[in-house]
Design goal:
An eight-stranded mixed beta sheet has the order 3-2-1-4-5-6-9-10, with helices on both faces. The protein has a two-stranded parallel sheet with strand order 7-8. The protein is an alpha/beta fold. The protein starts with 6 loop residues before the first strand and ends in a 16-residue tail after the last helix. The chain is globular, with a radius of gyration of 18 Å. The chain is built from ten helices and ten strands. Helix 1 packs across helix 9, helix 3 runs parallel beside helix 5 and helix 5 crosses helix 10. Strand 1, helix 1 and strand 2 form a beta-alpha-beta unit.
Length: 310
């Protein structure tokens, strides 16, 4: 961790699982001020961490959180923005406050809006990390943001397919931010982080009790299976969280021209994501339609990535 006085970090998904391990490490860095968005009150954070209310299932709540962050930051700038929160549901039948499919709303749409609102507050040479997943490769095709936001009838999704699609959206959003002229001009580092299968995360909270029980005890089994199938390797939340902290702090960074960081069998790699995740057409379609869904106007200034995808 590099020492930097008055460094400001804003984070979602910091109160449980790998996010809590990342927070514990990042909050210890000298001169770092940490602001966390969290729902409810049943959480514990390190001393000195500021917690603001945030329900990602409500776009109004996202806007309120961004306004509160802006007030807290004042004339300073955000050095690190970590968007780690996520949900995985058994089915795609639940809806957000605004009527969108819940997984799409929480994992993608809320974080898309948060980026749009907080990007103007980012410092020169700041870092943005969005948590994605290798499951983005299993997202439904053809890619249709409207169908993901409002699945019904022939467009129904299973819970895992909705989750995979939302993780593809996270990766495409990272690609879009990376392609903004402002990102290049301000030397921002954008990273999409895949922690791989990780035990003990809050993603399982929505699953049936029997599924949660199996997954909570399956870590050693999956680590053995990972010897022959790396995608099945289940990392500990401490390892996944520590790598997230390294990427956020700058202790680890992708090679030039790369934004996808993937934890494979506990080791940080920088592979090429799926073809769809690198599609500039899919990237721009998601960016435009997400802007319309959250009610942003074209003149907002961040609605059109202009450089080619990486």
């Amino acid at each position: 961790m590099d020492d930097k006085s008055d460094r400001i970090m804003v984070m979602t998904g910091a109160t449980s699982g790998l996010g809590a391990y990342a927070l514990n490490r990042l909050a210890l860095a000298p001169g770092t001020r940490v602001i966390v968005g969290a729902r409810g009150s049943e959480w514990q954070v390190p001393a000195g961490v500021e917690v603001l209310p945030l329900d990602l299932a409500s776009l109004a709540d996202v806007r309120s959180f961004a306004e509160a962050v802006a007030r807290r930051v004042g004339n300073a700038r955000i050095d690190i923005l970590v968007l780690n929160a996520g949900v995985q549901t058994p089915t795609a039948d639940r809806r957000s406050v605004d009527g969108f499919e819940l997984t799409f709303a929480v994992n993608h749409l809320a974080h898309y809006l948060l980026v749009q609102l907080l990007l103007p507050l980012m410092a020169e040479s700041g870092r943005l990390v969005i948590t994605t997943s290798n499951l983005h490769e299993s997202a439904p095709t053809p890619f249709d943001p409207a169908a993901l936001a409002h699945p019904d009838g022939s467009r129904r999704l299973s819970g895992i397919r909705a989750y995979s699609a939302s993780k593809l959206c996270n990766l495409l959003t990272a690609q879009a931010i990376s392609a903004l002229d402002e990102t290049e001009a301000r030397a921002l580092t954008v990273i999409a982080y895949n922690p791989g299968m990780t035990e003990g995360t809050s993603l399982m909270n929505e699953q049936p009790k029997v599924v949660r029980a199996i997954m909570q005890s399956a870590g050693p089994i999956f680590r053995l299976l990972g010897a022959v199938r790396p995608g099945l390797y289940m990392a500990t939340p401490e390892r996944s969280g520590n790598v997230l902290a390294e990427l956020a702090s700058g202790a680890a960074t992708p090679p030039a021209g790369k934004i996808y960081a993937s934890l494979v069998k506990g080791e940080l790699t920088f592979p090429t994501p799926s073809d769809l995740a690198r599609s500039s057409d899919a990237r721009d379609l998601l960016w435009r339609e997400s802007a319309a869904m959250v009610g942003l106007q074209p003149e907002h200034g961040k609605t059109s990535p202009t450089r080619s995808g990486r």
